[in-house]
Amino acid sequence: VTAAAAAEAPSSWAKSAVDTARNAGIVPEQVDQAYTQSITRADFCALAAAVYRTWEKSGNVKSVEKTAVSFSDTKDEDVLLCASLGVVNGVGNGKFAPQQQLTRQQAASMLHRLGNLRKNAKDSVKDRMPHVFADGEKIRSWARSDINWVYRQGIMNGTGSNQFTPNGAYTREQ
Prior knowledge:
Blueprint: H1 3-8, H2 15-23, H3 41-57, H4 77-84, H5 104-115, H6 144-152
Helix pairs in contact: 3-4, 5-6
């Protein structure tokens, strides 16, 4: 394996999950590379839209009222779909900031909203002690329940040493 090919490939801890996602057809071409790099808001939407469309085809989505959405800085269909479903929001002033990188806590919130679109989604984290990360004080209040949910569902884990790294970059392989 060349150094360039290794840089493009997912890390060893992510390879199995990435291969599963590829085999399921939910890894858009523009995201199927540079796995250790930060993901942009638009590329996250490409992945989220692929997941949603897969669930939709198999009849596994809740009935959702889509909201008409537009942004002055993108016409990307995946972004507009995710925004119309409430998975993502704009950044204000009619903009989406498609090339802005995601933090891990932003991704957790978006993944929680996406997960809740699936039929029979288990949204409750009641009656469970939330996992306490060593860097928990860095987790913003708006993201706490989302991080608890994605962690409890096995969708996101910590980054090692009992850290969540909420303000760290969310990478393509994550």
